[in-house]
């Protein structure tokens, strides 16, 4: 009996040793991963937690240094570090339009050989430039939606006429509450109207056209929302709409999926939580929905990431974007739509995600073309002119076209 | 690693990273100074070994933080550095470099020309747009910068002088008033700008709340180009007045009371005393203060950048904010060679102004005469 016990113990030791040695062979050596992210601090917290979960078994002892940055700061800092030749992070997490800029500057590694890009069928095209892939999606979306506080609005408006009536009704019932607000002077919030009126940034021949009829109609529409219908605040930027909505001082806003995790968190958004509803943009008089740009957030790898960092970065990114539990926590848990097929089906049981998915289907894919910046930058002054009532819709469209042409020349 | 904001752990972690560097720099500096002193004293055998040694850190700092960046900026002005040519200039960018040379007079000429003119196929088409709109051409920006600088300096000086004269009187609670007036100076201008930006909000800002409480209509300060310019000028005036008040109050207190008594006995009234005693006696303070104020205001980026961002419609940009926006702002195209040339143009404008102003005003006469 004693002998049997000893043999059993010896066998157990051998088996455990074999198992642990197999585990040790699979595990990556410890490394420190530096990530620069413009995904918002709430989402970044989850990312760091997920890294720690992954590293516990996949690369024990590894650490992560995550630096949250605004999108513009991320873009400038990457280019500055790239010019200096040092200081680039191991991973970049940001919107896809930055990918075009970084790729143009030669600061990103192509990812086609490092990842199985067929796993991301929805939006991988948004991170491709010249047939090469420069970003792996952490989610699909980054799209603007109508978000409603259902404690203030019982019925979600389906048309803009209904939205205006609803907003007025809310304000009449609660003079302290703003019925509707959004980031008025930001072109990203304006482009869905252009798409809704049938316009686009690029013509069929690839040239940039910002002065077509649809653009004029869109300028006129947002102008009238402010000066004719008087349904939006006199002045409102992102912080204004976001903060007021979180505290329950605005009934309806237009915002993106990146904000959902914060809105669903009752500690950060006491007025929302279960009172949050997400819906498609109300239809215009022509019957079309304004169509938001869609893409997602993408992880890119700078050219300087190599050796242990590269192996670790690839392994972690692959796990984060394909492992069912990780996707459940990092994408779905933060209110975003997953970028892989397998999880996307299950996600639709959540009403917020289902609505978000429906809006995503109406969106327009945002290309990673770096010339898109010329559109954003040329539309901004025109939109400001229209929204201060100092420029007509026609002049705004004409001016933005002239500015875009000058930008493209430069 | 735990994700965290500014908590004790983060502070300790940061300090453990920074402290060894600081200690290393300090010990290294002392060791270098010791070696330098020994070299100057025993090898060169100069009697100025100690002053040279003491001046060395400042000289090195000037070279490292002033001359080197200035030199590098000038070099960039003669480059073709922009996003698409990054592979030529960046050691870590991949891709082919299609430039035949990295720096050259041809690039410099093109960069400086583009600051002023829009050129296509060698033909000048008009003023060049430094940003996106027709309001961002060089002459428009220069005019607006002159207006911005002029308005600020005039208000800084007149209000500062008025307050200094008031604070020079025998009034009760003078210390409290003086502290309150100097308060804007004690607050970092970034915080001031962020605060005032909120105060100019059309719906929730203090300014409109006050206007509404007096029966007026709220104003969209930051949506209208003219009103936005008024707002940024107002904030910068508010920030700049304490500087003049403190400087001029010091000057007023150094004027001997005998002068005023003599003038009073001779029958001079207050206005005559002001024009014939106070202002001339303040001149040695006013000239350098105005010179500094013009240079500071001309180069004042933070207020405009934070409050209006140069908008709406790029109509509150001055030269430096347009430069920043062209190089790093939302509308930036990363044409760093062009931006470097633009910054040199601004430098020369200020340099020429300073030389003319200081020479014509005799502001440094007393220093030179000593």
In brief:
The complex is a heterodimer of chains A (410) and B (370). Chain A is α/β, with parallel strands linked by helices and 410 residues long.
Q: What would your notes on this structure say?
A:
The complex is a heterodimer of chains A (410) and B (370). Chain A has 410 residues and is an alpha/beta fold. Chain A folds into 2 domains: 29-141 and 295-365, Periplasmic binding protein-like II (D-Maltodextrin-Binding Protein, domain 2); 144-293 and 369-409, Periplasmic binding protein-like II (D-Maltodextrin-Binding Protein, domain 2, 3-Layer(aba) Sandwich), CATH 3.40.190.10. Helix content of chain A is 47%, strand content 13%. In chain A, strands 2-1-3-12-6 form a 5-stranded mixed beta sheet. In chain A, strands 8-9-7-10 form a 4-stranded mixed beta sheet. In chain A, strands 4-5 form a two-stranded antiparallel ribbon. In chain A, helix 2 links the parallel strand 1 (32-37) and strand 2. In chain A, helix 6 (187-196) crosses helix 7 and helix 7 (213-227) packs across helix 15. The longest helix of chain A is centred in the N-terminal third of the chain and has 25 residues, at 2-26. The termini of chain A are far apart. Chain B is mainly alpha-helical and 370 residues long. Chain B folds into 2 domains: 8-77, no CATH class; 135-334, MetI-like fold (Orthogonal Bundle). Chain B contains 15 helices and 2 strands. In chain B, a hairpin with a 2-residue loop joins strand 1 and strand 2 (123-127). The longest helix of chain B is centred in the first third of the chain and has 37 residues, at 8-44. Chain B is globular and about 80 Å long. Chain B starts with 7 loop residues before the first helix and ends with a helix. The model of chain B has no long low-confidence stretch (mean pLDDT 89).
